[in-house]
Every structure is written in C-alpha cells, then in structure tokens.
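Repro case for the chain-ordering regression, as requested:
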Amino acid sequence: MRVLALQGFILFGVTFLQLQDIKTWNLVLILLETIVFKALAVPIFLGYLIKRNRMTRETEPYLPHFISLIITTMIVVITVLLASSIRDTHLDKIFFIVSLSTLFTGLYFIASRKKIITHVMGYLMIENGVFVLSLAVGNEMPNLVNLGIMLDVFASVLILGIFLNKIGDVFKDVDVDQLSNLKDY
Amino acid sequence: MMTGTYLLIAFMIAGLLFVNRNSFLNNLLVIVFGVLQTGFTIFACYQYRSTVLEYFTFDSLGLLLLMTLGVVTIPALFHSYLYIRRHDETPQSRAIYFSALIFLITSITAAYLANHIAVIWIFTEMTTLSASMLIYHHRNKLALEGTWKYVFICAISITFVFIGILFLSLSLQHAGSNDLSFANLMAYKDQLNPFWLRLAFLFIFTGFTAKLGLVPMYTAGIDAKDKAPAPTGALLASVLMNLGFVGIFRLYTIIAQTPLFHWANLVIFIAAFLSIFVATVYMTKVTNIKRMFAYSGIEHMGIVMLGIAAGGVGYYAAVLHIILHAFVKSSLFFQFNQLYRTFQSKSINHVGNYFKYNTTGALVLLLGFISATAMPPSGMFVSEFLIFRALFEGKFIILLVIVLFLLTIVIWAFGKNILKILFLPVAGFDEAKVPKINPWESLSQFILLFMAVWLGLNPPSVFVQLIQDAVKYLPK
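-- result from build under test --
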C-alpha cells in the first residue's frame, strides 16, 4: 500500500518533468490528480479500510511468492523485448515499457490473489499503468480525456471502496472464495 | 441548445430525486422525466444528421437506438413505480433507485449520440456507476456479490477501452492528426497505422463486450441482470447491451475501410461463436429464470455479431435484430416480475402451471418465448433468417451448420423450461397465497412484443431507410 503511494509520487514527479510546456490549467489538473488522488487520498482511504476491517498482512496467494517473483520478472523482460521490437517515433519507449509491465503485473495481481483488497490494489496498479501509457503516447492529452480519467479514478475507487467496506461488514472475512453464491445450477 | 437543456434538466431531475423524500414529488419528477425523454426523442428525429454541442451527432444508428430506448423507457418507469410501491420501500431507497434509473437512461442516451470515442467512453463509465446502484438495490448479500462483480469487471473493461483509445490516438498520429472523433477517423482512414489500429480494436472490442455481453467479459452482465430489480433488469438486458453494440459498431465502421477488415471479422467471428456456445451450455443447465433470460441475451448478441462479421445483408439484419431483441427481452423481464409475485421464487423447479394463475401474463410469456426463439410469426425470425442467409452467401457453411445445431439446443432448453412454467403443475404449491394480478399490467409487454412483430414483418419505409443509412459505409 505504501508502494502504491510511492507510485503516485513518482507519477507526479515524472508528469511534472515531462509536461512543463503545456497549458497551466491542464497542468494543474493533472498534477492535482496525481498528487491528491493517487498519492494521498486513495492510500489514506485504503489504509482506513484495512484498519476498519482488521485485515492482516498475509496475502494468501494461489502461488508461492518465489514463483510470483519469477513471473513478474518475466513480465518485465517480455515487455522490454516487445517494446524494442516496435519502431515508432511517436512513442516514448521507456514509458511504454514501464506502463505495459505495470499493467500486466496488475492483471497478474488480480488473478493470483485471494483478498479483495489486493484486487483493488491490482486495479489501481492497472490505472497507474494506463496513466503512464497516456504519457507514453506523447501528445498532450485533451482536456476531455483528462477529465475522464479523473472521473474514472474518483468514481471507481469510491465505489470499489464503499462496496469493499460493505463486503467487510456483511461477510466478516474478505476473501473472494466467499463471493461464489451466484451460480447457474 | 436543446440537447444541452435536455442533459441539464435530466441530470437535475436525477439530483432532485436523490435528495427528495416526498412520494408525490417523486412520482411527479419521474413523469416529467418520461415526458422529457419522449420529447427529446421526437426532437431528435427532426434534428436528423445535425451535430450539436460539438460532441453529439444525430446519425441513423444513434437515432434508431434512441427511439428503441424511448419506447422501452416508458414501461420501465411505470413498472419501476409499481415495483417500488409494492415493496414498501423507505423514502431513501426509493430516492436512490429512481435517481440512479434516470441517471442510467440519460447516460445511455448521451452515449448513443456521441460522435467522439472518448465521449462514449465517459458516458459508458457513467452507466456502470448508475447501474451498480440499481443492482445493489436490495442491499443483501447476494446483491452485494453481484454488484461487486459487475463493478469490478466493468471497471477493468472500461480501462481496456481507454487503453484502446490511447492506441487509437497513436495510430492516428501517424496520419498527423489528433482529433479522435469518428468523422475525423473516417477522413484519415487510409493513413492510420495498422499495427496500433489492430491493438486498439482488440482492446476496445474486449472492453465493450462487458456491456454487449460477448465472450470475454459477459459474466458481469449475467449476475447484474439476475440481482437487479426486474424493471431495471429489462433495461440492462436490452438498451444497455445496445450501448456496447454502438461502441463496437462505430469503430468497426472505420476498420472496415482499412486492410484490417478481414482480420477484424475473424476476431468478431471467434467471440460471437464462443458466446453462442457458452450460452447454449448454460441454457441447458440453468434453473434461475432471470439468468436463463440473460443467457438468451448472450446468444442473441452472438447472432448479431455473426451478422456483422458475415457482411452483405447481415449488416442490415444485425441492426434490425438488435432493435427487435431490445423489445422482446425487455418485455420478458417486465413479465418476470408478475411471475415472481405469483410464485415467490426465481427457480424453475418451484414454478409451474402459470396459465392457471395469471392467464394474461402466461400469454405474454408464451408470445415472448416464441419471439425470443425466433419462430415464424415473430419479427426476429426475419432478422435471424437474413443473418443465416448472409452466412450462407459468405460461404461460412460449416459455421452456419454448427450455429444452427447450437440454436436448436437453445430452443429445446428454453422451450422445456418455459413450457414447464406455463403448463406443468408443481407439487406442494400453496394456491391460497397467489395474489390477484391485474391483467392491464401486461399491456406494455403486449405492445412491445407487437412492435417487434410489426417492425420485423412489415417495417415502415423510414425505418428501413434509417437502417440502410446506418450501415451504408460498410463494404457490400
């Protein structure tokens, strides 16, 4: 979770360095999003949730940690290989690698862990990856799309958080195994 | 001007409903919204092909689906009113329900008309938010589970769509432009970079399947339609699925102009075929009536996308099919509520001999079954037949045979369950508790089913022209 906050700060720094030449209003908006939402509000909110539902630190993965480590390393290596095979002047390669590996790691997180809070974190990682990707694409994002991201992050985290809160209340224990009553037969 | 006013008033009504606790004012606002929605639909017909507020265009596809939405909205509001009144809701839960419902309908309207892919994306996100409030209406364990799954899968899908949009903008930058409106994409269609366009299509297609209900992401919709109150389920199973179709279809129209056309068709074929296959498997197993309707929806969306991929007459048939499906499926969901009141159960095992308890309702169910399985008097027979013809003419004979075989199984499973509900008495059922159901409540379903037959068998020439106009950019 702290790592998530750190990610938010790094995003802030990177964006600040990258986007100095664009309009002030736009800049303020992006910076507001990275620093306030990603670095402060979301981690604090998640921290509150964890405390409230008394979640423990064990992540109960389906796979042992060692294999996870190997898989995430593989993801990074593969994205580097993939990215170097693409020749494109419109693309910032380092950003592209970082974003893709964050994205796939997020997906892997969601697939391999049992706790719902880890799923939310995986989702937030994907969001961060997408954010970096939008930097990689290079053009200054139109205000509209920007607004969209704000809405997306704000709404999804809020809703995911609220429901997570409720799930904590109703189910007493936050495992995806408990969410398997909706079946077809 | 008018569009801006519409959006403003609609969102204002949603906001007012949210804070309002008075039951009279609540009903009044809902009626005002019904009038507003109808008025806007009529207004839209006069604004054909004009662009307003820069991001909204009243084109043929948008107009057709908007009219469909207009027709489905009125009974949805009416049945919601009945539903809420019967369940003795607290003023608070009623306020949230109607507010979210109106928010949902308005977002769908805006997304239909949007001519810019980012605008569609934003309003799709809004539909997810409002739909999740509706699904969570009952505030119990199962509703929570359904909502959680829906929100999570939709959030990931919407992120996928965003990644797709980013790739699309990369592809467009090679053409030296960065305006992502569909008109502009169309103008630069020859200069788009194929590699990024390919990735963009994959991501956007995968993302929108959560709304449309095709294979990768269809699971979210099933749980949602099961747990949402039936009048909302009707909207989720009809007009919201059409929203996914809009998202995919508008991009597909661009792709069809590029060398990636055949590859895109292949992707759609795979997704559509797998959808029909999955729907068939679950249809034979399912015992929950609402889920059965939902899986039937998956099967129909598979057929629609087969029509799109097959080309030729398939384009026309696909658009027709998706409109007719919206009418038929929403009427089935509206009827489900009466069924539930009669038997107090969603399981096929506890429901039977419906003709004895509610003759009018049973008639709706029978006609709805005939329509949904595309038997001859129904309009969907025409569109489905045309899609099969398109497959035949496109030389996809093996696929056609397999699909026909799967559909036969679907009809068998669907028929087995529906006929049991209608005729077979169920053991140990206490008849004394069956409430008297007013036959007039079924009127809206009869009208919807009649619309489906009328538009399928004898479509007015304006309607045909609109559909042909919607698919005119696609290769013949």
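Ordering looks correct now. The mean pLDDT of chain A is 68.
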